[in-house]
């Protein structure tokens, strides 16, 4: 299976040459690297075109980020790794960068944190963006085979939820290398304002997943009338105390997930959804169907979610009371877009300090 042969992109050499040519148009710093590669191509015309690109027009949709400082371990740190997985998508890159910065900045042992990024398309400019923004970051990038899930996705109420990459979290146990036995999965629209090690160290007590649970939320509403009126389907949660949880922040026992064939279980529910509409949202409800009431509950401080407002309008929300370790702009509104539009919500100002985006850098001038 192609999926198992995932080779992490560890360096430039693993990128195909046509992509290298593209890099030249992103940052001046890497132009030399690419030119060396270009020299191996026989077509001088290509090299000339690229050269003109470097001077005249930077690629418009590639954000340019400031370099983050180097974060060092404190004296008391051991060598234990903390594995964090996130998806990589050029549309959410600004969010990812802010999330990474926030994690490192609040971490007592930042050098112990290793990132495992999943992407569905090779985007070399994204790779170099991370490399140049966080020169000291321990990270690997894996290809998520979008075709594996594409045919299984049903239309939800928000198009952004239907992106294959949104479903990558279901396949972590197939994608991550064997030495990653536990992983924290995080969405790209979060910032962490506490030491991530505290979440990492949660005792899973034999459960496959840990996440904050929200038992006051009306669980009924996540599924359709069709689901609840079906005599078989409506028994799904019998013998459990199902509560809503958000899949944007989860601690996963990767081995248990693999052994328990949870990927298959989630996929099975997606297949049911294809046949009859049993829920409204995207990748979240099949997780609820399999795992609601079966996970280890984590303090709510680890997912102050919904800051992006609802799924339709993205209205402003205020913070829920209580201590906060992680802020999550789930919902339609994203802080970087609202800040750019000059109509930010109050909570967006909590995201802004982690924004590494440099709107007006002139990278191509001498
Ligand atoms: C939960 O939502 C369902 C469907 O909208 C509704 O019928 C039910 O009364 C709600 N329950 C509570 C406790 O609010």
TrEMBL record:
<keyword id="KW-0812">Transmembrane</keyword>
<feature type="signal peptide">
    <location>
        <begin position="1"/>
        <end position="31"/>
    </location>
</feature>
<dbReference type="InterPro" id="IPR002495">
    <property type="entry name" value="Glyco_trans_8"/>
</dbReference>
<dbReference type="InterPro" id="IPR029044">
    <property type="entry name" value="Nucleotide-diphossugar_trans"/>
</dbReference>
<protein>
    <recommendedName>
        <fullName>Hexosyltransferase</fullName>
        <ecNumber>2.4.1.-</ecNumber>
    </recommendedName>
</protein>
<dbReference type="Pfam" id="PF01501">
    <property type="entry name" value="Glyco_transf_8"/>
</dbReference>
<keyword id="KW-0808">Transferase</keyword>
<dbReference type="InterPro" id="IPR050748">
    <property type="entry name" value="Glycosyltrans_8_dom-fam"/>
</dbReference>
<keyword id="KW-0735">Signal-anchor</keyword>
<comment type="pathway">
    <text>Glycan metabolism; pectin biosynthesis.</text>
</comment>
<keyword id="KW-0328">Glycosyltransferase</keyword>
<keyword id="KW-0732">Signal</keyword>
<comment type="similarity">
    <text>Belongs to the glycosyltransferase 8 family.</text>
</comment>
């Amino acid at each position: 299976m192609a999926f198992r042969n995932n080779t992490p992109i560890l360096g430039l050499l693993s990128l195909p040459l046509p992509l290298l040519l593209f890099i030249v148009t992103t940052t001046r710093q890497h132009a030399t690297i690419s030119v060396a590669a270009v020299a191996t191509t026989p077509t001088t015309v290509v090299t000339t075109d690229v050269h003109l690109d470097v001077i005249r027009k930077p690629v418009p949709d590639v954000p340019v980020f400031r370099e983050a400082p180097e974060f060092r371990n404190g004296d008391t740190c051991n060598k234990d790794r903390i594995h964090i997985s996130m998806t990589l998508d050029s549309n959410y890159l600004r969010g990812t960068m802010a999330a990474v910065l926030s994690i490192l900045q609040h971490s007592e042992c930042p050098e112990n944190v290793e990132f495992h990024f999943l992407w569905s398309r090779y985007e070399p400019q994204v790779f170099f963006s991370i490399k140049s923004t966080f020169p000291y970051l321990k990270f690997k990038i894996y290809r998520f085979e979008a075709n594996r899930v594409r045919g299984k996705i049903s239309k939800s109420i928000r198009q952004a939820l239907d992106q294959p990459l949104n479903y990558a979290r279901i396949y972590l146990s197939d994608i991550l290398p064997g030495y990653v036995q536990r992983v924290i999965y995080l969405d790209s629209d979060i910032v962490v304002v506490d030491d991530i090690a505290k979440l990492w160290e949660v005792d899973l007590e034999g459960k496959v997943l840990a996440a904050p649970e929200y038992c006051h939320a009306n669980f009924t509403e996540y599924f359709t009338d069709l689901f609840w009126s079906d005599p078989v389907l409506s028994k799904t949660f019998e013998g459990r105390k199902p509560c809503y949880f958000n899949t944007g922040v989860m601690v996963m026992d990767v081995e248990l997930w693999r052994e328990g064939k949870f990927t298959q279980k989630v996929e099975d529910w997606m297949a049911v959804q294809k046949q009859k509409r049993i829920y409204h949202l995207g990748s979240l409800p099949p997780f609820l169907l399999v795992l609601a009431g079966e996970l280890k509950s984590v303090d709510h401080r680890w997912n102050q979610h919904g800051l992006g407002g609802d799924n339709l309008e993205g209205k402003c929300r205020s913070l829920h009371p209580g201590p906060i370790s992680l802020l999550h702009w789930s919902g339609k509104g994203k802080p970087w877009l609202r800040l750019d539009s000059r109509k930010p919500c109050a909570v967006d100002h909590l995201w802004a300090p982690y924004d590494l985006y440099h709107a007006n850098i002139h990278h191509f001038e001498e």
